Amino acid sequence: MNEREREQVALFRYGLIAPILNGQVDIKEYLKEVEGKFHSVPYYGERKVAGKTVQEWFLHYRRHGFEGLLPKKRADKGNSRRLSPDDQDQILEIRKKSPHMPVSVFYEQLIANGEINKSQISYSTINRLLKKHNLTGKGPEAMPERKRFAHDKVNTLWQADLSHGPYVPVDGKRKKTFLIAYIDDCSRLIPYAQFFSSEKFDGLRVVTKEALIRRGKPTIIYGDNGKIYRSETLQFACAQLGITLAHTRPYDPRSKGKIERFFKTVQTRFYPLLQAEPASSLDELNDRFWRWLEEDYHRRVHASLDGLTPHQVFQSQLDTITYLEDPSILDSIFLKREQRKVKADGTITLNKQLYEVPARFIGLNIDVRLDEEGVYIFEDGKKVAEANLVSMKDNAHAKRTPSPFTLAAENEEQGGKEHV
């Protein structure tokens, strides 16, 4: 199990303990519900999880944070546990005879029938094989009932979404904009929102960091199934901060009706102002939007707030808000994560660009984290070095340190000559 897989397992574990951590459920009933169904566990596949195990994960998280949820590294790391091509073909043929059998039961039958040895072939190996060939037998799940809801405390839940905005001049061309926003479910206040010239995750990173700094920490972030709201970066950030990340059912925009209603308000009350006097740049668009947000939307009586404004409701509960003790931690929490193997010349490739890393990492798989500011190397969750963009022109005149692999080969060759 590599570092990325360990982190994905930890994210799954956090997802199970998050409702307990944030007081969303009756613990006994919730653990009973968890025990009663199969879970798709990263790396391990379909499995049941004991309530006692969930409680242990909860304690580990309380004591050690997100790091406490990481699986321990294998003692037999490096030993191959792969199936041969013939074994794979045989297992796939057997599976085609019972395609809808739960993978956990299928795995147990393979062992019982002597097809595989449990000590040599793990459940996750079989599950990965079947998943690769679309033979896990998963069927469509019944759609759960959606109920109308409203929270009575601020920062219990933030709804998140993206809306298409107006066209504005960007670098000499008219480009479409996208409004990314959060809305507090209780007060209808907007923790933060901003227009961007793309709908990539970089925009959501900015909006989420600003919202957390300005308005405190929510218990739950509720987004749709869009790519940016499913990103691992957002999942890791929420897990590190103790926030539950929940998602709507696909193609069901009404399940986050409050943020949809806010976007409609923007369209009917703010966009007409732009038609009368168009924004000349993205910066101007955002400046005018933020001014409208504070002076109009936040200070206007909301129909669902019993004659109060979003600002009044939020301000009335300031004593219940949890603010970040050290906002600077957001800089590392929201870094994008990648795994790379360092080449013999001490470089890695990211986004079609070549980066140079310290020579001690040559030949190793490293944990790389990056944002628009830079590329960093992490070990055991801590930044230990920075990768620099390679300048071919400068490197042509630089004295390079020999690769340790080259030195080892030279030493072996010299040793051989001495014995001749």
Automatic annotation (TrEMBL):
Annotated Integrase catalytic domain residues: 140-318
Biological-process GO terms, alphabetical: DNA integration
Gene Ontology terms, MF aspect: nucleic acid binding
Record SUPFAM superfamilies: Homeodomain-like (SSF46689), Ribonuclease H-like (SSF53098)
Pfam families recorded: HTH_32, Mu-transpos_C_2, rve
InterPro entries named in the record: Homeodomain-like_sf, Integrase_cat-core, IstA-like_C, RNaseH-like_sf, RNaseH_sf
Stretches of the chain forming a coiled coil according to its record: none
Family: Belongs to the transposase IS21/IS408/IS1162 family.
PANTHER family, per the entry: TRANSPOSASE, TRANSPOSASE RV3428C-RELATED
The protein's name in its UniProt record: DDE-type integrase/transposase/recombinase
